[in-house]
Design goal:
- With 93 residues, the chain is mainly beta.
- The chain has one domain.
- The protein has a 4-stranded antiparallel β-sheet, covered by helices on one side.
- It is globular and about 35 Å long.
- The termini are far apart.
- InterPro entries: Rrp9-like (IPR039241), WD40/YVTN_repeat-like_dom_sf (IPR015943), WD40_repeat_dom_sf (IPR036322).
- This is U3 small nucleolar RNA-interacting protein 2 (inferred by orthology to a human protein).
């Protein structure tokens, strides 16, 4: 059994399992526990993923051509939230 807790994963529909797992994708908090990921969005027909976390950051990830890795290409801190992470991520994607 694979537990993908506080990770960003790229899944294969054909294999029905993750082909890439980015553990502790949003780092760790003061208690040395991985930060919770509260939202994930992907842009159709692209290699772009966005994720939001309890650390207040939105991170953008690029999926490698072989789908076996992702790399953080950009991140920014949200100063305040008038709406949820999901709505913000969908606006970017």
């Amino acid at each position: 059994m694979l537990v993908a807790f506080r990770c960003v994963c790229v899944w294969s529909v054909a294999k029905k399992k993750p082909v890439c797992i980015e553990r502790k994708a949003h780092g760790v908090g003061e208690d040395q526990q991985p930060n919770w990921i509260v939202s994930v969005a992907a842009r159709r027909y692209t290699d772009l993923i966005a994720s939001g976390s309890c650390d207040g950051f939105v991170r953008f990830w690029k999926v490698a051509d072989d789908y076996k890795s992702i790399s953080n290409i950009f991140s920014f801190e949200l100063v305040s939230l008038s709406s949820g992470f999901d709505e913000i991520l969908l606006r970017f994607c």
